[in-house]
Amino acid sequence: MKKNQIMHIGIDDTDSVRKGCTTYIAALLIEKLEELGVRFIDYPNLIRLNPNVPWKTRGNGALCLRFQYNPIFEDEIKQRTRNVVENNSDLQSENTNPGIIFLIGNKIPQEIRIFSKKVLQGIVDLESAIKLTEKYSCDMIGFKNCRGLIGSLGAIGEILDCDHTYELISYRKLRNIGKVRILDKKSVFKMDELTKPFTFNNVDLEKMRIIITPRGLDPILFGIRGESAQIVKKAFSIVHPGEKIERWVIFRTNQGTDAHIKKVQKLSIIQPYQSILAKGIVSKNPQIIPLRHVIFSIKDDNSEVDCVAFEPTGSLRKIARKLIVGDEVEVFGAVRKVGEEGILTINLEKINILSLYLKKKLQNPICSKCHRHLKSLGKNKGFRCDKCHEKFPDKKKEEIIVNRKIRKGLHITSARSQRHLTKPFRRYGLEKTCQERINMIDEWHRE
Ligand code: ATP
């Protein structure tokens, strides 16, 4: 028997809106596993899955712990994991169906990695998760309808070998859960200032609000997101919490990476529950619908689809309002079926304006002496200057290009309404795709 082996534990669907959080269960489990002498080979992974699944509780997050262990403790590790999940899940809630999967081995099979991509970008069924789990001889524990096994396997298969970020999550004392979260707001703005651009989504500068605290009944006090473990730890030391922190953990995650977005070549192939990036020409001008949402349509060679910028998207909604027929855009967003007919609509997260239609209008010509706009004397009767009274019988209306007051390029929904996976402006250019980037960030920490 090998002395040391690698185990990956995937966990999902442990909480409900009234209780708990899967990241907290991972935090408790880390402690229990450390008692058995395990050596973690990665930060705990917090993997956000398809944000459009209808049965998610909040942010569709699943967890994976990866570590080296002594095989004599294998059964004990599994038993402890089961106990922690069972004792801390909200099993009373109808919508909570925990799943745990244990995969043993250094490498994650390619099929499981592909499965993860599907869980992130589409909808998968429980049978396919179970089949794959059995094929690779993984032990699994499912509670109730076992749906959590989908996310558990999804978390194991996402090894974050491309772009990724970190989040330091701090947890409240149990007795404070449900009470208003107390945090020195000024210290959060200061932290943002001192750590930018290497942390993100700390504050909403449009509303001057802090956005590191969740709102629900979960045990999280606040979470700080950033490019490295060092920077989120530094940022944490700048924030002044007004209540005791029970524990904190740094997770490696796919948050802020746009990993949910699938680029599609044609509008005709978009499907409900996907998050897509599609190109088209604005084909119907924006309209404001009830609750101040903005709706417009885009089309390509053979399809047309509605796009909606909801009121909370803030600055994105303002941009959507200014589009006109003929603008060429790329839209990013979730595909939803709307109404009884099931019309597909894209709920916008981002708009990239590729080209603006040249909007022209006719205006009265200018007086050659006074440089003021002339007054019309009636159809085909020419113009007259109000100031110098000179008449210009031969002048015609002039065509001018309207200033659209909108810029080409990328526009993103306001920070307060961004999804966990949405890549914010601050991260553009910081993606971890090559070693240079990582070195650059490390250097910054050394300063
Ligand atoms: P929290 O963020 O508070 O941990 P949550 O929002 O992650 O909660 P869950 O309670 O985990 O929500 O519920 C999501 C459920 O959907 C899980 O059972 C998970 O296995 C399943 N699921 C996740 N992604 C997919 C998918 N792409 N297709 C089908 N089922 C999925």
- Got a strand count? 24
Largest sheet: 10 strands, mixed
- Low-confidence spans: none
What count of domains describes the coordinates?
A: 3
Report the β-strand fraction as a percent range.
25-35%
Small molecules in complex: adenosine-5'-triphosphate
- Would you tell me which CATH topology of the largest domain applies? Alpha-Beta Plaits
What general outline do the C-alpha atoms trace?
elongated
The end-to-end span amounts to 46 Å
Give the SSE layout:
Layout: E1 5-12, H1 22-34, E2 39-40, E3 45-48, E4 61-69, H2 74-88, E5 99-104, H3 110-121, H4 126-135, E6 139-142, H5 148-157, E7 165-172, H6 185-195, E8 199-200, E9 203-204, E10 209-210, E11 220-226, H7 229-238, E12 245-253, E13 261-263, E14 275-289, E15 293-299, E16 304-309, H8 315-322, E17 328-338, E18 343-355, E19 360-363, E20 375-376, E21 383-384, E22 391-392, E23 398-401, E24 409-412, H9 435-446
Parallel strand pairs: 3-12, 13-14, 16-18
Antiparallel strand pairs: 1-4, 1-5, 2-4, 3-4, 5-6, 7-11, 7-12, 8-11, 9-10, 14-15, 14-17, 15-16, 17-18, 18-24, 19-23, 20-21, 21-22
Helix pairs in contact: 1-2, 3-5, 6-7
Bound molecules: adenosine-5'-triphosphate.
